[in-house]
Amino acid sequence: MSKKPNQNHRTELAERSRAERARLEVTFDRPHLLGALFGQYDQNLVAIENRLGVYIAARGNKLQIEGDVEAAARARDVMTGLYNRIVAGQEIDAGAVEAVIAMSAEPTLDGIIRHDVAEPPKVMIRTRKKTIVPRSATQVTYMEALTRNDIIFALGPAGTGKTYLAVAQAVSQLITGSVDRLILSRPAVEAGERLGFLPGDMKEKVDPYLRPIYDALYDTLPAEQVERRIASGEIEIAPLAFMRGRTLSNAFIVLDEAQNTTIAQMKMFLTRFGEGSRMVICGDPRQVDLPQPGISGLADAVTRLEGVEGISVVPFGISDVVRHPVVGRIVQAYEGPDA
User: Fold this and answer.
1) Is the CB of residue 195 less than 8 Å from the CB of residue 189?
2) How many C-beta neighbours within 10 Å does residue 197 have?
3) Do the Cβ atoms of 184 and 210 come closer than 8 Å?
4) Which of 29, 156, 223, 275 is the most buried (most CB within 10 A)?
5) Where are the beta strands (DSSP E) in the chain?
6) Which domain holds residue 191?
7) Are both 108 and 169 inside the same structural domain?
C-alpha cells in the first residue's frame, strides 16, 4: 500500500512531462532551398537543436520539431524565418542563425515569441558588394534611425555592428548620390592623440588606429573603388584632430570610439555638422581609455542632447552582439548581465 502513492506520483509527473512537450511539423514548398537552410552537414539544424534543446528530424520537404513547448515554437519560428530569408535572396550563415535565434527570445507584448522573426527584415542596406540585413531587433531600430535622423548616437559593447552598419549606410548613400562624400574618423590615440613618437609619416602613424573603418569599407566596396574614392577625396579617413575648423556639408560623417573624446573634442566635432549631412557617433561608454574617464565627451553629449529634435540615441546590449557567440559571453563575463 505504501508504494501506490509513489507510483501515482511518478505517473502524474510522466503525464505532465509529456503534456509540456510538443511535436510540431513545418512544411517547405521549395525543396531545392533546403540545402541552404540546413547548412553544410546540417550545421544549422545542429546549432538550433543545441541552442534551444529540441530535436529536429528532416523528412523530405518537412521538418519535425520535438521539445519543450516554448522551445519547439521558437525553433519553428527560427526555421521559418531562415527559410523566408533564403526565399528573399538573403544568404544564411552561422551568424544569421544565431541572430534569428536571439531575436526569437526577445520579449514582446504578445509574449516571449516574436512572430516577426518568421518574416524577412523590411529594412536593409545595399552596397556594391552585399546587401546587409539586421541581425537583432536593436539593429532594426538603428538601421531605421540611420535613414531618418540627422545625428545618431550608437552606444554599446563590441561586436554589435555599430560602426560597421554606420559605414555601410554611408557607402550606400554615397553610391546613390544622396551625399557627396564620407568623413570617417576616430580619436587616433585613446587619450590625447599623441602621434609624434610613432615611426613614419602622418598616414602611417594614424592608419593602425583607423583599421576597423578600412575593414568596413573594403567589405562594402570593391578595393579599387575604395582606393579611387579616397584618392579623389570622396572618402576621407582621418583622426579626430583633423576635424577642427571645418564645416562638413553634404557629407555622411562617422566618429568611431567616441567614448575616448574629451568634452571639448566632442563639442568641436558636433559643431562641424553642415547642411545636407548626417552624423553617426559610435562608442562604448563602459570602455573609456581617457586618463579621467569621468570627462568622456560621449557620455556628456548623450546627457546634454537627450530629447533634442533630430537626434536619436540607440543603446545596444549583450544580446545584440553579432560576432561569434563567445564574444557575447566574454562581454557578459567582464561587464555583468546588464551590460
Assistant:
1) yes
2) 7
3) yes
4) 156
5) 21-27, 55-59, 62-68, 125-126, 131-132, 151-155, 181-186, 235-239, 251-255, 278-283, 311-315
6) 125-335
7) no
CATH code for the domain in which residue 240 is found = 3.40.50.300
Number of domains in the chain: 2
Check if the beta carbon of residue 156 is closer than 8 Å to that of residue 162.
yes
Q: Are 313 and 142 in contact (CB under 8 A)?
A: no
> What is the residue type of 160?
T
What is the identity of the amino acid at 336?
Answer: G
The set of cell numbers assigned to 183 is 568623413
The SS3 assignment for 123 reads coil
Q: How far apart are CA 195 and CA 240, in angstroms?
A: 12
- Residue 7 pLDDT greater than 70, yes or no: no
Q: Does the reported pTM lie above 0.70? A: yes
The terminus-to-terminus CA distance of the chain in angstroms comes to 56
What one-character-per-residue DSSP string does 238-297 give?
EEGGGGTT--B-SEEEEE-SGGGSBHHHHHHHHTTB-TT-EEEEEE-TT---SSSGGGBH
Type of residue numbered 42 = D
